[in-house]
Amino acid sequence: KAGVTQTPRYLIKTRGQQVTLSCSPISGHRSVSWYQQTPGQGLQFLFEYFSETQRNKGNFPGRFSGRQFSNSRSEMNVSTLELGDSALYLCASSLSGGLPGELFFGEGSRLTVL
Amino acid sequence: QKEVEQDPGPLSVPEGAIVSLNCTYSNSAFQYFMWYRQYSRKGPELLMYTYSSGNKEDGRFTAQVDKSSKYISLFIRDSQPSDSATYLCAMIGGGSQGNLIFGKGTKLSVKP
């Protein structure tokens, strides 16, 4: 069974630009969560989607947004990039009715903002 | 005070040592406690899972939860070089099960 797939794996942007990251969950998983990982703050929750609806949102500015499609694939977008947005962005999927808190992570998209 | 505190290390031990990793938390409402392992350039993977207080053992790994002290631990027996990774404690935050609150992670290196 294929794992969580994230694209692109690496990208470089400049301040002010926007970026879209993509995530394909494990087949059958309908919940997708996004996290930002930085050396200073660690892993921080961005948002969670289930059946195309945002179910929860972390404490990030409105420049961070996401969506989920009918096939459970998800995208997140960051507009007006700032230097501090440089991070590893991780997507995780989970199974409805599965173990609470068991998330299956992708390998991440590493964003560098210059 | 952050909701979950974890010593970032790094922690370096010789092969075969017993490793103790710890986290403290502030929210007494937390019920589910996880340990994730993250290898370099990889996403985290669930290693151990505990509900409420008590111990759970899985091979060389033991997870302990002491809710009265708001303290959780992960013990690794007979540590191996392949255990070298960052270990993150996690708890389910509010609202939904996909919202995990992570410690900052402890980087462990096991030397042959």
Write out key terms for the chains shown.
heterodimer, A: 114 residues, mainly beta, seven-stranded mixed β-sheet, 0% helix, globular, B: mainly beta
Description:
The complex is a heterodimer of chains A (114) and B (112). Chain A has strands at 5-7, 10-13, 19-24, 31-38, 42-50, 53-57, 64-68, 74-78, 87-94, 104-105, 109-113. With 114 residues, chain A is mainly β. In chain B, strands 2, 4, 5, 9, 10 and 11 form a six-stranded mixed sheet that branches. In chain B, strands 1-3-8-7-6 form a five-stranded antiparallel sheet, with no helix packed on it. The radius of gyration of chain B is 13 Å and the shape is globular. The model of chain B has no long low-confidence stretch (mean pLDDT 94).
Topology:
The complex is a heterodimer of chains A (114) and B (112).
Chain A: E1 5-7, E2 10-13, E3 19-24, E4 31-38, E5 42-50, E6 53-57, E7 64-68, E8 74-78, E9 87-94, E10 104-105, E11 109-113
Parallel strand pairs in A: 2-11
Antiparallel strand pairs in A: 1-3, 3-8, 4-5, 4-9, 5-6, 7-8, 9-10, 9-11
Chain B: E1 4-6, E2 11-14, E3 19-25, E4 32-38, E5 45-51, E6 54-58, E7 61-66, E8 71-76, E9 85-92, E10 100-102, E11 106-111
Parallel strand pairs in B: 2-11
Antiparallel strand pairs in B: 1-3, 3-8, 4-5, 4-9, 6-7, 7-8, 9-10, 9-11
